[in-house]
C-alpha cells in the first residue's frame, strides 16, 4: 500500500550519496489538566509529546517515542540518529550548536532549518556548477555568546530548497 501511494504521489526520495533519508519531528497533544494532572504542561493543560522518525526513502515511520509534553525536543529523540550513511532532516526545534557539534563529530549528516536570529560566519564558498548555486561551509554561533560550533558545517541553497520542499509535506 505504501508503494502504491508513493507511486501515485510521485514520491521518489533517493539519491546516490545517502543510503536513506530520514526526518524527525515532535508534536504535543494537549488535554485538560484535570484529566491527567501527572502530565501537567502549563495553565490548565496537560500534554504528551510524540516524536516520530520517518523514513522518507521508504515512506514509513521507523520509530515513535511518547513522553510528557514538558520534555525538550532533543531529549525525545534518543536513538533516532544512529546510521552514518543516512541523511537526517529536522526543523528548528532541535537547534543547539553543541548538539550540532556532537552529531557532526560522530559523522552524521543532517539538514536543518535555522532559527531566524542565528549568527552565521561563512568559512568557504564553492560554486556548484548550477544556476548560481553555491555550497557554503559555515560556522554557527558567536565567540561572544560562547555557542559557536567548533566544526565548519556545509550549507547549500540546494539543501535549503530540498528541506523547504520536504517541510511543506512532513513538518
The radius of gyration computed from the alpha-carbon positions, rounded to a whole number of angstroms, is 18 Å
Return the average pLDDT rounded to an integer: 76
Order of helices and strands: HEEEEEHEEEEH
Structural class: alpha+beta
Task: Give the termini separation.
Answer: 22 Å
- Strand element count: 9
For the sheet with most strands, the description reads: 6 strands, mixed
Give the number of helices.
3
| Low-pLDDT regions | 155-171
Residues in helices, as a percent range: 10-25%
User: How large a portion of the residues is in β-strands, by DSSP E?
Assistant: 35-45%
Overall, the morphology is: globular
Amino acid at each position: 500500500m505504501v508503494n502504491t501511494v508513493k507511486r501515485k504521489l510521485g514520491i521518489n526520495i533517493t539519491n546516490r550519496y545517502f543510503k536513506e533519508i530520514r526526518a524527525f519531528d515532535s508534536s504535543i497533544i494537549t488535554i485538560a489538566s484535570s484529566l491527567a494532572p501527572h502530565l501537567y504542561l502549563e495553565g490548565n493543560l496537560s500534554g504528551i509529546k510524540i516524536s516520530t522518525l520517518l523514513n522518507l526513502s521508504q515512506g514509513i515511520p521507523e520509530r515513535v517515542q511518547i513522553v510528557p509534553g514538558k520534555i525538550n525536543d532533543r531529549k525525545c529523540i534518543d536513538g533516532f540518529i544512529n546510521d552514518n550513511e543516512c541523511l537526517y532532516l529536522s526543523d528548528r526545534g532541535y537547534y543547539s550548536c553543541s548538539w550540532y557539534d556532537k552529531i557532526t563529530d560522530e559523522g552524521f549528516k543532517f539538514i536543518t532549518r535555522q532559527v531566524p536570529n542565528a549568527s552565521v560566519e561563512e568559512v568557504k564558498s564553492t560554486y556548484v556548477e548550477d544556476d548560481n548555486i553555491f555550497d557554503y561551509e559555515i560556522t554557527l554561533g558567536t565567540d561572544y555568546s560562547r555557542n559557536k560550533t567548533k566544526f565548519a558545517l556545509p550549507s547549500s541553497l540546494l539543501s535549503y530548497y530540498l528541506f523547504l520542499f520536504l517541510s511543506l509535506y512532513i513538518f
